[in-house]
Amino acid sequence: MDERKALLKAHEQEQTSASEAGILVQYGGERVVDGCVTSGVNSDAGLPTHNRISFENLENYLNEAFSEIRSESEASFQAITHAATAYSAGSVLSRAFPERYLALLVTLAIEIPVVLVISGGGKSICEVLGNKKYTILLAFLPLCSAISGNVGLQASNLTTRAISHELVTRNNFMTWMKEEFCVACALSLAVSAALASLALLWVYAFTNSLDFGFAVTIATAQMLSILAAGISGTCAPLFFAFVAGRDAGKWAGPLETAVQDVVGSSAMVYLSIYMLRGFVQIGWTPHAHAHCT
């Protein structure tokens, strides 16, 4: 009999402890929070207790959402570990298919407009620049793409590392985005100036003439491509982690590459048409009057 009473008493104490552990319990119009009897108003915040609990629930929800990308929770850590272990133990085909292959197909689909841009606007540029300068322009296209791709990779890696080390949180995320955009602007100006100088010297070496309009066109295309790469490189890991729920390591890279390629190629081709025609009118670029087919 004594043992039964002891068990019942222990059970009641466990229930009481569970009720007092941050849970509101109603006693005759008063509320018990963390074992202390209080009124319906929070004396610290001056707000009703139920509002305070709602704010706490919202804060907890946001903290849990951000902890997913930081891999703080044990479940997220175990899921990532399981995925890494399964990939490491998989065969060559299981590693390549289906997710990595699907990511590359998505990249291929996004890159198709790049082919259309280059093939569709090439004739107009060739008629303005001539075959030789048009060839030089196309030679700068992979160079611009490689530089902007490096900028996107830097932004992606730095953002992912900052989140994992809790340097980027829900409170300062927009500040981080603004700072990274300013960094991309600074890099675009510096790299574009260097590339413009290189383009100017390159054209002079092949044509024995200075073409300032050509150099400014190359610099502008590089600037826009770097800005697009910096923004996409910063946003891509967050998008796939928060919104898409996919592995950022497999999907962020293709998105960054595709975005900066589309922007860079469009700027290099279609923007170049309008800029070079304007530079021809002001005398910065000599009109070749070439016949291109």
From TrEMBL:
Entry protein name: Magnesium transporter MgtE
Family: Belongs to the SLC41A transporter family.
Membrane topology: Multi-pass membrane protein
UniProt keyword terms in alphabetical order: Magnesium, Membrane, Transmembrane, Transmembrane helix, Transport
An example molecular function term from Gene Ontology annotations: monoatomic cation transmembrane transporter activity
Residue intervals of the SLC41A/MgtE integral membrane domain: 142-269
UniProt KW Transmembrane keyword: yes
Transmembrane feature ranges: 101-122, 134-153, 181-206, 212-243
Top-level lineage group: Eukaryota
Keyword presence, Repeat: no
Main location: membrane
A cellular-component GO term for this protein: membrane
Location(s) in or outside the cell: Membrane
Gene3D superfamilies named among the record's database cross-references: SLC41 divalent cation transporters, integral membrane domain
UniProt xrefs under SUPFAM superfamilies: MgtE membrane domain-like
